[in-house]
Amino acid sequence: MGGAIWRCPECEWLYDEARGDAGEGFAPGTALSDFPSDWSCPDCGVRHKGEFEREG
Amino acid sequence: MKTFTLERADAAPLSYTDKKRWLWLASLALPVLPLGAIAATLATGSEAWLVAPLVFFYVVVPILDAIVGEDTSNPPEELVTQLSADRFYRYLTWATVPLYFVTLIAAAWFVGTQAVSVWGILAVALAVGFYSGSAITVGHELGHKKEKLERWLAKIVLAVPAYGHFWVEHNRGHHRDVATPEDPASSRFGENIYAFARREMPGALRRAWTLEKERLARAGKSAWSRENEILHSWAIAAALRIAFVAAFGPVLIPFLLVHDFLAWWSLTSANYIEHYGLLRRKGADGKYENPKPHHSWNSNHVVSNLISFHLERHSDHHAHPTRRYQALRYFEELPQLPGGYSLMFLLAYLPPLWFRVMNPRVMAVVDGDLERVNFGPVAA
User: Fold this and answer.
1) What's the pLDDT score for residue B376?
2) CB contact, 8 Å: A29 with chain B?
3) Which residues of chain B does A25 touch, with a Cβ-Cβ cutoff of 8 Å?
């Protein structure tokens, strides 16, 4: 892990583990599995991390 | 009239004409109500005009909704991409943003510089406050979009009703927790709107702040950082209000308090009717099922939908929150409100009437299954 890209199945929001996400406060290298358990997609709000689909 | 078409290899070309396309302009005409009432008062000297905007919303709109009726038509799914990409629709939402500022400035000038009675001030505050409540509807539509410009416009327009925390609260809080006992913005079965408001208003503020604090903390920043999205909108709201009091005097303080409260109350009213009594079920993993269309009350009434950017097609909105207003759909067998929002707000303000109309509807929607009813936290 550490290099995967994940996609929200509802709104297509993308998370690249290698790049992290500054807006969400996730440093580069943060795995999706390390997100807080109550975290939900920042764009649509209706999908949690367990539902994200692996893109690459 | 613009028609969207799609060539298909295995079937006849698909086409869709949006009958409501030009009717969406109605939102741009809304400020005519408060501004027209102020102008009529200035021209005739009679403050009775100031009551007209509220009469329009609570009396004329329900009558028009009853006469014009419902529109159950949907765009074909294959054409939604084209329909959503048509920039005409988003320009309309953007164009409403300055109108909210113009209207509030005009009202502040009127209250601060003209000889208006206490009752007149109250009436203007209610009329404009109600209109500014619809700024939250615009902020809602814009705040759900992925474009930076639209998100900024959401924060700017939410400064008019001084409700800047709504954007964070709604997108990341309400949408995640909707139709659960944990959501301060979903009303429970048997809960009247006055009890709901006491839970919803502070609960929404608390959740927004907590969510923003958590997001900033992950990046090692303070909640009071300049990147706090709530503070952006609040700063504009505060600057606006300080300028008003400086320019027009202390009479603006009670005016703004009533104005802001009425705008917030409009949102509370919408939240109250949108998910009343509905509950998502918990799965074996302890997580609630995803929000489905049947976790929101829907209304297809044409007139009240036109002045709220399809907000009343709320079921599809919660199932697909980033979908643009012109593309929101209606599904059969959804929980249906018997009227548009104007009428339902009135019912909500009279709790015995609300319970009589809505409680049987909740039971019908859940097919008598009490495990699908939001009764609030149940004692273990």
Assistant:
1) 87
2) no
3) 215-221
Q: Give helix B229-248 / helix B87-113 axis angle, nearest 10°.
A: 30
B290: nearest Cα among A27, A16, A50: A50
Q: Shortest Cα distance from B351 to chain A (angstroms)?
A: 31
Q: Do B172 and A44 touch (CB under 8 A)?
A: no
Per-residue model confidence as pLDDT tens digits over B215-263: 999 999 999 999 999 999 999 999 999 999 999 999 999 999 999 999 9
DSSP B315: H
Predicted confidence (pLDDT) per residue in B319-371, tens digit: 999 999 999 999 888 899 999 999 999 999 999 999 999 999 999 999 999 99
For A55, list phi and psi in degrees, rounded to 5: -100, -40
What is this structure's pTM?
0.95
Chain B contact present for A40, CB below 8 A: yes
The answer to whether B311 and B305 have CB atoms below 8 angstroms apart is yes
3-state secondary structure of B92: helix
Question: Could you tell me if A53 lies within 8 Å of chain B, comparing CB atoms?
Answer: no
Do B117 and B47 form a contact (C-beta atoms < 8 A)?
yes
B91 by DSSP, 3-state: which? Answer: helix
Q: Which residue of A has its CA nearest to B221?
A: A25
| High-pLDDT (> 70) share of chain B, % | 99
Do residues B211 and B169 make contact, with C-beta atoms less than 8 angstroms apart? Answer: yes
The minimal CB distance from B172 to the residues A22, A40, A48 is found for A40
Nearest-Cα residue of chain B relative to residue A40 = B176
Helices within chain B (DSSP H only): 26-29, 32-44, 52-55, 61-68, 80-85, 87-113, 118-143, 148-157, 166-168, 175-177, 193-218, 229-248, 252-274, 302-306, 314-319, 341-349, 351-365
- The complex scores an ipTM of 0.93
| φ, ψ (nearest 5 deg) of residue A43 | -90, -45
Does any CB of chain A come closer than 8 Å to the CB of residue B301?
Answer: no
The answer to whether residue B126 scores a pLDDT higher than 60 is yes
Judged by CB atoms closer than 8 Å, whether chains meet at A11 and B171 is answered as no
What is the C-alpha to C-alpha distance for residues B21 and A55, in angstroms, rounded to an integer? 37
Shortest distance, CA A24 to any CA of chain B (angstroms): 6
Q: Measuring CA to CA, how many Å separate B344 from each of A27, B90, B293, B369? A: 47, 28, 19, 24
